[in-house]
Every structure is written in structure tokens, then in C-alpha cells.
DNA sequence: ACGATATGAATGAATG
DNA sequence: CATTCATTCATATCGT
């Protein structure tokens, strides 16, 4: 993860688009380095995590100066960035660096990506209480995922109660609102160039 | 999901379940194409948005012929579908003042059919409407809202938390469950409603 | 070339 | 309902 993977040539429509190979229905947004820079700045410096519709449009508009972009791209970017940061943290904090090249029992699927989901049925998950993580909104979910899965077969067979309603309600009383570690970064005012180089941030 | 997105392993053994690799194949519901088709049909053509408990059961029962499914899946599907349709609108507010130097055969960029309350024309009955393509978040809803027969939509949308409460808690008791009151839906043999090209709907 | 990885996109499931 | 989390699919890109 050190090597700042990805980061195509600086050329990618650098400026305000203009020429982007008319015809390449890449369908997939490919952020420019400037866009990435700004997004990370917003994420790490401003602390933006889950911008709402208005914010997204605002950000989107701003990034549009650096290349084609839509609101959904911004939305997904933050969504993914947060999720992956957490995932990474969760995995790292798990105590061991989980080396995928060995702990993969069987890949009962020809999934070419049998990685990153290696902790699926391990101990990491399973009713783990995930808490504490900086967040602009300061909330934390307690994911008490229990739900005895392992019920393969005979799914809708016996008209089980599921059909009648009641869907696994995990009614844990206290909502657990740990909002420690408030993200009080640079509330002083100017933080524009405060952070040295965002490029090297995670 | 226009191109060929998503559509994992063809586990979608059309309803006859039979065997599904009792391998904890993800505890999460994986709708079959037929189920999706019907759901979209209900959503776009019938105008179903927030089915109540009884309706959910009916729909669920009907979809069960095409694969394992539970009431909560139907419930969530409608929830999500509606929510996302809205969200897209929220994120798509961006003015598309982009230009393309006249080299744009396929428009991977021409969605945006912002309608919403745009009572589709005057006499475009027959509910069979087909919107062109519709890229991911691009979105394009049909808003037929015709239902000139068989009113399957929620009754006044009474917001009676029935569905929710019933699903979220195990209190579906208190009598009066959803019996098998021959509903309005023709839960009969085959489907294949000759509707529109729902597959291409958002 | 291929495989691993990073990351955009999509969507089921929850929670508030 | 809106917001968020978790998982998974799809694909661009890079290392060997």
C-alpha cells in the first residue's frame, strides 16, 4: 500500500477536458490527479466523509474544472474511500497483517478476486463491534452481526416465518454513541495548504 | 446496470432451486433476472412504491417461483429502489452544459430525463413505455402511474408502519395476519407479462 | 501476457 | 424516508 499505485500518466485530460478520445465509452470515471488531490484534501483536511446532495454538487462543480465528473462520482468516491479506509484499518488492527497468500482455504468460486474477502468467515468479523473511528458526523455503528447464517438449503421451503414478516431484528438497546476523537482538525481557519502533501496521504 | 454489469454467478437457477451449493453462498439475497424483471414491472408499470405487508407477501410469493426470496427482500428492494431513484435525482442536479465537439455517436452522456410529476403526456396509456437507455446513476424514470386496472399500488399509502413494524419486529402477531385472501394479483401460472421492455429500465 | 491490486460502481441490508 | 454500511462486481493499471 505504500506505493501510491495507480496514478496514470499526468496526461489524463489534465485541464478542462476538451479532448478525451471521443469514442471511448469508458463508462467509468477516471479521476484526474487534481480531482484526487482535492478530494483527499476535502477528506483528510476538511474532514468530509459523507457529503450530502448539496455538498456533492458543490464539490462536483468545483472538480469539474479539472475534468469531466458527475455527482455520483463524488458520492461514490467518498463512499468508497471511507469504506476502504475502514476496511484497511480493521484488517490492520486485527493484529496481524493477514497475508492473503496463505490463508485462503478454498476458493469455492472461480472468483478471480479471492482476496480481500478472506476474512469473511474468520474471527475478524462475526459479531465484532466496530467502533471508534473519526467521522465528521460522529457516529458509530455497532454492527452486531450475528444471524446464524449456515442455513443453506431449504430456504423458502417451509413457509417459515420470514414470509410472515419479522426479519431478523437485532434490537440492541443502547445505541452506543461513542463519538470520541472528534475530528477537530484545523478549526482555526486557514488550512488550505496546511497539510504538506496530500498526495502522499493514504 | 445497463451494459452487462453485475450479474454474478449464474446461480439464478430459475426458481427450481434444487441445489445451491450449500456453501454459505452469501447470506444475501441475490435476485434472479426474472425477479428483477417483475419487481421493476411492479415499480414502473404498476406504480408500486411502498407495498404494505400484505402486498409484500403477495409479491414475495409470486417471486418465489423464480428463486428463493423472503418478504424482507421485497421490502428492501422497494425501499432501496425508491431511495436511489431520489438520490440520483439529488446528485444529478448538475447542469449538463458540457459540450462535445460533435463527435459523439453513442451518448454515454445523455440521460437526465428529469421528470417527476411530469404527468407523462396526455393519452400515453397502455403503460408500456420504454425509456431509451439509462446509465447507472443517469436514471430515467417512466412514471407511468396509470394503473387503469387492477390497482395494485398501496392503498393511499397510509404510511401505516405495518410493513415496517411487522418486518422489524416480531410482533406481527395481534391477529389478522396475511392470510391467503385471494389477492388482486393474479398469482397464477406463468408470468411473461407482455409489458414493456422492463429489462432496459433503470 | 498475467495476476495482483486499487478503485469506480452497484446494490442488498440496516439503522435512525 | 435518508443515510450509512457491507459486499461484491467490473475494470484500469502496474509489477514481474
From TrEMBL, chains A, B:
GO CC annotations, alphabetized: nucleus
Gene Ontology MF: a single term: DNA binding
Region entry Disordered, spans: 1-21
Subcellular location as annotated: Nucleus
Primary location recorded for the protein, binned into one broad class: nucleus
GO biological process: plant organ development
This protein's UniProt keywords: Developmental protein, DNA-binding, Homeobox, Nucleus, Transcription, Transcription regulation
Domain of life: Eukaryota
Residue ranges occupied by any Homeobox domain in the UniProt entry: 22-88
Comp. bias (Basic and acidic residues): 1-13
DNA-binding residues (ranges): 24-89
Presence of keyword DNA-binding: yes
Annotated family: Belongs to the WUS homeobox family.
Protein name: WUSCHEL-like protein 1
Lineage of source species: Eukaryota, Viridiplantae, Streptophyta, Embryophyta, Tracheophyta
Gene symbol of the encoding locus: WUS1
Whole-protein residues included: 1 to 202 of 259
Amino acid at each position: 500500500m505504500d506505493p501510491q499505485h495507480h496514478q496514470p500518466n499526468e496526461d489524463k485530460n489534465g485541464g478542462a477536458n476538451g479532448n478525451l478520445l471521443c469514442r471511448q465509452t469508458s463508462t467509468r470515471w477516471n479521476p484526474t490527479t487534481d480531482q484526487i488531490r482535492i478530494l483527499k484534501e476535502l477528506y483528510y483536511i476538511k474532514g468530509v466523509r459523507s457529503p450530502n446532495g448539496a455538498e456533492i454538487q458543490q464539490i462536483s462543480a468545483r472538480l469539474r474544472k479539472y475534468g469531466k465528473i458527475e455527482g455520483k462520482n463524488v458520492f461514490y468516491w467518498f463512499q468508497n474511500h471511507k469504506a476502504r479506509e475502514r476496511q484497511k484499518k480493521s484488517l490492520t488492527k486485527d493484529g496481524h497483517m493477514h497475508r492473503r497468500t496463505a490463508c485462503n482455504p478454498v476458493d469455492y468460486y472461480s472468483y478471480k478476486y479471492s482476496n480481500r474477502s478472506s476474512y469473511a468467515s474468520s474471527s475478524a468479523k462475526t459479531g465484532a463491534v466496530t467502533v471508534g473511528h473519526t467521522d465528521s458526523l460522529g457516529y458509530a455503528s455497532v454492527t452486531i452481526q450475528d444471524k446464524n447464517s449456515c442455513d443453506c438449503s431449504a430456504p423458502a421451503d417451509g413457509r417459515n416465518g420470514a414470509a410472515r414478516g419479522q426479519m431478523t431484528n437485532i434490537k440492541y438497546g443502547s445505541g452506543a454513541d461513542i463519538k470520541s476523537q472528534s475530528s477537530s482538525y484545523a478549526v482555526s481557519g486557514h488550512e488550505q495548504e496546511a497539510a504538506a502533501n496530500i498526495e502522499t496521504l493514504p
